[in-house]
Design a protein that fits this description.
single chain, alpha+beta, Glutamine Phosphoribosylpyrophosphate, subunit 1, domain 1, Serine Threonine Protein Phosphatase 5, Tetratricopeptide repeat, 2 domains, six-stranded antiparallel sheet, 8 helices, 10 strands, disordered N terminus
Length: 265
């Protein structure tokens, strides 16, 4: 999950990371383990959080982030109220270390909690209670690398190759992000910019070998036409209708495509 102001491929950031593992006998079954990281780029205010675990659907419990404020990870015997509470404190200028102290102070189960937080300015801190598993701890500091409000939020809950699958989903999310940027620019009347983002959408999808959605092609037709290229708009619309003939009814009454209908013999 990332919250950002502007997209970046690689950023220098400050981060806090935590791990919770258990020491087990060689003959015994593996114990659940969790690793999480929260990170921020102080130069841009971008923040992000990621978590890996054997616990199913861990992404619904551990990570929290808010654009321009910070990111939080709560794990071990996770207290999900920590996430929004710490973010609210960070939003009011409280440091991550102070915020962690506030939320854990009156928690009778804090000895079994783990918590990591980073502010958008790059200040980071972690907490691990003394009753966590055989090895549990956290580190914070500079040197990690990383990548409107939420930019990307993907998770893999059950897969034989979770990292590979996560990469595939991130790629698809990046295509969708480009598509959203193109349409947002179109709606705001930003000609040229809308075309740049929309063409990037198709290029990214095709480079990944992913199937281009008919709706992506439909929007491409609209944006190309708005930028004065009726011929390529027609080509995109024809591809969209070939993939999804039901879009023909929408196209017939779409005022954004009126220029194409007027050009028809």
């Amino acid at each position: 999950m990332t919250d950002r102001a502007k997209p970046r491929t690689l950023v220098s950031c400050l981060a806090a990371s935590m791990a919770l593992t258990a020491t087990v006998a060689l003959a015994g079954p593996p114990e659940p383990a969790t690793f999480s990281i929260v990170a921020a780029d102080p130069a841009t205010g971008e923040v992000g959080v990621a978590v890996a675990s054997r616990f199913f659907a861990v992404g619904a419990v551990v990570p929290f982030a808010r654009a321009g404020v910070g990111a939080v990870a709560t794990q071990a015997s996770a207290n999900t109220s920590y996430g929004p509470a710490v973010l609210d404190l960070l939003a009011h200028g409280v440091t991550p270390r102070e915020a962690i102290g506030v939320v854990t102070r009156n928690d009778e189960s804090r000895s079994r909690r783990q918590l990591g937080a980073v502010s958008a300015t790059g200040d980071a801190a972690t907490f691990s209670g003394p009753e966590c598993n055989a090895w549990a701890g956290g580190r914070s500091g500079p040197g990690y690398g990383g990548f409107d409000d939420r930019a990307i939020d993907v998770r893999v809950d059950d897969h034989a190759e979770p990292i590979v699958e996560l990469g595939r989903l991130v790629d698809l999310a990046l295509v969708n992000d480009l598509w959203n940027r193109g349409w947002a620019a179109f709606m705001q009347g930003e000609r040229g910019t809308d075309l740049k983002w929309q063409e990037a959408t198709l290029a990214k999808a095709e480079a990944l070998g992913a199937s281009v959605l008919p709706e992506e092609l439909y929007d491409t037709a609209v944006i190309r036409l708005a930028n004065g290229d009726a011929a390529s708009a027609r080509a995109a619309l024809d591809r969209a209708l070939a993939l999804n003939p039901k879009l023909a009814a929408q196209a017939a009454g779409d005022t954004d495509l009126a220029g194409l209908r007027e050009a028809e013999p």
